[in-house]
């Protein structure tokens, strides 16, 4: 009887201990849940505060300007221009290139003349539009055996390096926290590019070269010696301009936060 009583007492004690352990674990679980909710709430509040602070720090600008729209239009012209060339519609391609050239001159003049039409984004978009246009022209004219492959490869490689450098500058100039949405938000102005003098000369030489080559089938001077001379000049300015970005200071500028 004594043993039976002791066994029953021990069972009751075990049940009581299990109840106590369960209660302690339940309390800890509830505290952990409360702590997690507080942490999540704190993270959300911190994120919202950082977002508000970034809105004050980063300069926003109007990107819907006439020069920027002309640059986008020029980029849109590029595939059509390439299509005309590979279809041997050189007259139409030359007319479209003339329109693109006029838009390039016009957007620069408008941005310089009217302060409200100038934008930081334009410093990226204008050279980007030129690179897309020139790249499409070189690729399509090379496809038609009017420009050497090695020259086109040199120009494309140089432009890809500059585009990659532009994306890297954008990343470095973006204040913390860096997010994908803020990185690709073109209304956030964080840096401005400044092309070197030789780069400007190189752009002019490349445009002269592709325009002259495009006009060659129209005016019957394909494979002229002057075109061959332009090949070497273009190769020289392309390589020199690429080097100039490595050795020249102040080719880009980070914008300081507003205070």
TrEMBL record:
Entry EC number(s): 2.7.8.41
Catalytic reaction annotation: a CDP-1,2-diacyl-sn-glycerol + a 1,2-diacyl-sn-glycero-3-phospho-(1'-sn-glycerol) = a cardiolipin + CMP + H(+)
Alphabetical list of InterPro entries matching this protein: CDP-alcohol_PTase-I, CDP-OH_P_trans, CDP-OH_PTrfase_TM_dom
GO CC, alphabetical: mitochondrial inner membrane
Bilayer topology: Multi-pass membrane protein
Any GO molecular function: cardiolipin synthase (CMP-forming)
PANTHER family (alphabetical): CARDIOLIPIN SYNTHASE (CMP-FORMING) (PTHR14269:SF60), CDP-DIACYLGLYCEROL--GLYCEROL-3-PHOSPHATE 3-PHOSPHATIDYLTRANSFERASE-RELATED (PTHR14269)
Xref: Pfam families: CDP-OH_P_transf
Protein name: cardiolipin synthase (CMP-forming)
Keyword hit for Lipid biosynthesis: yes
Gene Ontology biological process terms, A to Z: cardiolipin biosynthetic process
Family in the record: Belongs to the CDP-alcohol phosphatidyltransferase class-I family.
Assigned keywords, A-Z: Lipid biosynthesis, Lipid metabolism, Membrane, Mitochondrion, Mitochondrion inner membrane, Phospholipid biosynthesis, Phospholipid metabolism, Transferase, Transmembrane, Transmembrane helix
Major location (coarse): mitochondrion
Native source species: Timema genevievae (Walking stick)
Residues annotated as transmembrane: 63-86, 92-111, 132-157, 229-247
Intracellular or extracellular location(s): Mitochondrion inner membrane
């Amino acid at each position: 009887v004594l043993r039976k009583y002791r066994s029953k007492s021990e069972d009751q004690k075990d049940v009581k201990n299990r109840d106590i352990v369960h209660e302690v674990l339940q309390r800890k679980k509830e505290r952990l849940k409360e702590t997690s909710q507080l942490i999540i709430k704190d993270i959300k509040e911190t994120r919202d505060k950082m977002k508000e602070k970034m809105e004050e720090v980063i300069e926003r600008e109007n990107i819907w300007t006439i020069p920027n729209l002309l640059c986008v239009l020029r980029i849109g012209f590029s595939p059509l221009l390439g299509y005309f060339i590979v279809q041997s519609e050189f007259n139409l391609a030359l007319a479209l290139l003339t329109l693109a050239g006029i838009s390039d001159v016009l957007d620069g003049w408008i941005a310089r003349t009217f302060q409200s039409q100038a934008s930081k984004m334009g410093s990226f978009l204008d050279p980007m539009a030129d690179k897309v246009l020139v790249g499409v022209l070189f690729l399509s004219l090379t496809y038609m055996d009017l420009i050497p492959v090695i020259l086109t490869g040199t120009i494309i490689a140089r432009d890809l390096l500059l585009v990659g450098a532009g994306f890297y500058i954008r990343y470095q100039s973006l204040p913390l926290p860096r997010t994908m949405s803020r990185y690709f938000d073109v209304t956030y102005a964080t840096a401005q590019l400044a092309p070197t003098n030789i780069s400007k000369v190189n752009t002019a030489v490349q445009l002269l070269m592709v325009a002259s080559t495009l006009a060659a089938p129209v005016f019957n001077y394909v494979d002229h010696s002057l075109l061959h001379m332009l090949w070497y000049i273009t190769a020289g300015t392309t390589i020199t301009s690429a080097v100039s970005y490595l050795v020249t200071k102040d080719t880009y500028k980070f914008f300081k936060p507003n205070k």
